[in-house]
Amino acid sequence: MLKWYEVKEQAAGHKRLMLLWYIYKIAGRKPVQFIVFFVTFFAFLGAPKIRKCSQKFQKIVSGNGSLIQAFKHFLNYAYTLIDVMEMYTDKFGIKNIYFTDENDKQTLFNDLLAKKGVCFLCSHLGNTNAMRTFFKSGTEIDWIKVNMFLEVNQCKVFKNFLSEIASDNPINVYPVENIDLTTSIDIKNKLNNGEIIFMAGDRVSAHNSDAVFSAEFLGHKANFPVGAFRFALMMDVPIYFIVCTRERDGRYAIRLKKFEFNGSRKEKIDELHKQYLKFLEDLTKKYPLQFYHFYDFFN
Predict the structure, then answer these.
(1) Which residues lie across from 46 on neighbouring strands?
(2) Is 206:5 a contact under the CB 8 Å cutoff?
């Protein structure tokens, strides 16, 4: 089985990415999309293992495991990276991002303005980077500091490229490879000061692949990391599930669900798993081409 941390960056290179960035600055998005289409096509042809994983996943989630569907999956991801580039350079306006439910938005704003600290359990569905634009949009909550756990050794070329072109760096990144007791204390202090943390709950650790729980997802068994969920509960702050999906008009829709449950710690962790997976599964069915896992996701 192909693991996510065994997947290599496709058609990536610093010089090529910088060339695309210069083309973007001169000519705009459309020429870059045109180039990316062909780059993605040749990357697709040269990645048979990843291609088969995409086909297998698309067959399960949408019933369509064709090569064309898999290519659409690849291409969606490639175009999302252009969005990320725009978000990191403040070229992606706040008008292109909206909440699907005003009540959920107000609940979140109330928690943020009360400086309770918030833990977001995100995923690799859609593009959570859209929240970078939202938290820099000049709204009443743009003062909030953002922290994120990331696997820094994955997609290093693209991440270094983003760091080079970014207008600034409002996000404090914690490498998941180096999480220890000091990290927990540091994050807890920041949350107590009203800061927020993003953690992905849909990808097992590359460094502790046994720290997982198995659950049914889309009718098949899959493994999920126990650490993200335990950490979120341990912080004792409001927990939100979040997904940002790209819509047909090019805008991003922010979907939220606040975790609310009273019970013992064991009951809470079980319920947290259950609610998160239900939230993620429902949206994955709706947006199968935006679930960006290109490996053997299922057991």
Answers:
(1) none
(2) yes
User: What is the pLDDT at residue 4?
Assistant: 43
Q: What is the pLDDT of residues 149-163, one digit of tens each?
A: 877 666 677 778 888
Token pair for 263: 């019970």
Q: What is the pTM of this model?
A: 0.92
Q: What is the pLDDT of residues 37-71, one digit of tens each?
A: 999 999 999 999 999 999 999 999 999 999 999 99
For residue 211 the two structure tokens come to 């720290």
Distance CA 142, CA 180 (A): 29
Judged against a pLDDT cut of 70, whether residue 170 lies above it is answered with no
pLDDT tier, 10 (very low <50, low <70, confident <90, very high otherwise): low
CB-based burial, 249-266: b 16+ in 10 Å, e otherwise: eeebbbbbbebeeeeeee
Q: For the chain, give the secondary structure using H, E and C.
A: CCCHHHCCCCCCCHHHHHHHHHHHHHHCHHHHHHHHHHHHHHHHHCCHHHHHHHHHHHHHHHCCCCHHHHHHHHHHHHHHHHHHHHHHCCCCCHHHEEECCHHHHHHHHHHHHCCCCEEEEECCEECCCHHHHHCCCCCCCCCCCEEEEECCCCCHHHHHHHHHHCCCCCEEEEEHHHCCHHHHHHHHHHHHCCCEEEEECCCCCCCCCCCEEEEEECCEEEEEEHHHHHHHHHHCCCEEEEEEEECCCCCEEEEEEECCCCCCHHHHHHHHHHHHHHHHHHHHHHCHHHECCCCCCEC
Query: Does residue 1 register a pLDDT over 70?
Result: no
